[in-house]
Design goal:
There is one protein chain. 44% of the residues lie in helices and 16% in strands. The chain is of the alpha/beta class. The strands form 3 sheets. A 6-stranded parallel sheet has the order 1-11-10-9-12-13, sandwiched between helices. A 5-stranded parallel sheet has the order 6-5-4-7-8, with helices on both faces. Strand 12, helix 14 and strand 13 form a beta-alpha-beta unit.
Length: 435
């Protein structure tokens, strides 16, 4: 991992921050656009051909039958762990602030919002040879809590079919409409619809760079959760932090992907050296060491700062997806954090709790986008419509102001639409909406 000391190495830090920005262009844009255009043109046939090309599986049909979903059999202890995760997440999202319909009255008029859940949502669940049941739980459960009626899942197949652990998680969450489909073509199918797949209102869930690019291109045709980049963690550690814990948490992030970002910031003497030794020791026993080592070598960073304040300032500049505060008073320190996807307080709260079952979502903003966005939650599956009701007297009181603003904008028909109701021949003599 690269080591820097601030403020001496400010230029190196700035370069590191620039490198983690999300850029979607060039060949990635061209290739993804071609896939989307083919799905739009050829429908199901394109999905079958592209699945064979990219996943090495020739499917007879895209939808996974209810019988196949119910046939999944997994280890009993693993099943109990999934159930615990589900219960924790359901409890969290029941408590999460949920936007409600509301209105206020002004005399005999009222304005407000009518809040409704989305009708149909698509979950992208990474797959192939791997299993990501946690992504099922993290996307399906807040959608259910919001009241979404139709939840659809897509997940890439392997020659052996869909991983039974993923299937069991889908069953636990009540997701019965599942398609063996991945990549940009899956996003295109959910957004545009084909002969077999009805389009959805929103697509959520993590995926590779082609999935993310497809979501970017199709945003507007369909809503999306976010444009997620490589996973990342930033750890702020004080004198009391254990080097072996820190190394374990950095590696847990680094094993995701060679592009993953793992950063340690400390003001403690000798801690960087101790963590480096622990990293090497733990890498020797790690089956995912090649991936983790590449991530640490390419995107890892060890930063020495003068004090806790400087560490907190750096964290706010970085706006990390995951932030661990391994300091004496982590709750107080959290109050100084302006930008982070999720914050983990103290040495008994490792980031992996957030990955699987603590409650807060693991679909989180990356690449500094925590400056303006949040993790997936109940409100992401809700929408609102403005409510406006005026009676004649309220309209009479405000229509001339409407007309003045409309005329100033050069829109005389707008002004007339308000004033025409004041010509004396019209009176709204119906009962007040509350009566």
């Amino acid at each position: 991992m690269r080591r820097i000391t601030l403020p001496e190495d400010e230029r190196l830090l700035q370069k590191f921050l620039e490198q983690r920005k999300n850029f979607f262009s060039g060949d990635l844009l061209t290739q993804t656009s071609e896939i989307i255009e083919r799905v739009a043109r050829e429908g199901d046939q394109a999905l079958l051909d592209l699945t064979e090309k990219y996943d090495g599986v020739r499917l007879k049909e895209l939808k996974i039958s209810q019988e196949n979903l119910e046939a999944a059999d997994i280890d009993k202890q693993l099943l109990e762990a999934l159930k615990t995760s589900k219960e924790n997440l359901e409890d969290f999202y029941r408590q999460q602030s949920r936007k409600q319909s509301w209105f206020i009255s002004r005399g005999r008029s009222l304005v407000g919002e009518q809040v409704r859940p989305l009708e149909r949502v698509g979950l992208y669940i990474p797959g192939g040879r791997a299993a990501y049941p946690s992504s099922v739980l993290m996307t399906a459960i807040p959608a259910r809590a919001a009241g979404v009626e139709e939840i659809v899942a897509v997940t890439p197949p392997s020659p052996e079919g869909i991983n039974p652990v993923t299937v069991k998680a889908l069953e636990l969450c009540g997701v019965s409409e599942v398609y063996a489909l991945g990549g940009a073509q899956a996003v295109a199918a959910l957004a545009l619809g084909t002969e077999s797949i009805r389009s959805v209102d929103k697509i959520v869930g993590p995926g590779n760079k082609y999935v993310t690019m497809a979501k970017k291109i199709l945003y507007g045709q369909v809503d999306i959760d976010m444009l997620a980049g490589p996973s990342e963690i930033l750890i702020i550690a004080g004198e009391e932090a254990r080097p072996d814990f820190i190394a374990a948490d950095l590696l847990a992030q680094a094993e995701h992907d060679p592009e993953a970002r793992a950063v340690l910031v400390t003001f403690a003497d000798d801690l960087l050296e101790k963590v480096e030794l622990e990293l090497e020791k733990q890498l020797e026993k790690l089956t995912t060491a090649p991936t983790a080592r590449k991530a640490l070598d390419s995107h890892g960073l060890l930063v020495r700062v003068a004090d806790l304040k400087e560490a907190m300032d750096l964290a706010n500049r970085y706006a990390p997806e995951h932030l661990e505060l391994l300091v004496k008073e982590p709750l107080a320190a959290a109050g100084e954090i302006k930008h982070a996807g999720s914050i983990f307080l103290g040495s008994c709260s490792p980031e992996v709790l957030g990955d699987y079952l603590a409650g807060p979502n693991h679909v989180l903003p990356t690449a500094g986008t925590a400056r303006f966005s949040s993790g997936l939650g109940v409100e992401d599956f809700l929408k609102s419509s403005g409510l406006i009701y005026y009676d004649y007297q309220e309209l009479k009181a405000e229509s001339r102001d409407v007309a003045l603003i409309a005329e100033a904008e050069g829109l005389p028909a707008h002004a007339r639409a308000a004033l025409i109701r004041l010509d004396g021949s019209f009176r709204n003599r119906g009962k007040f909406i509350y009566d």
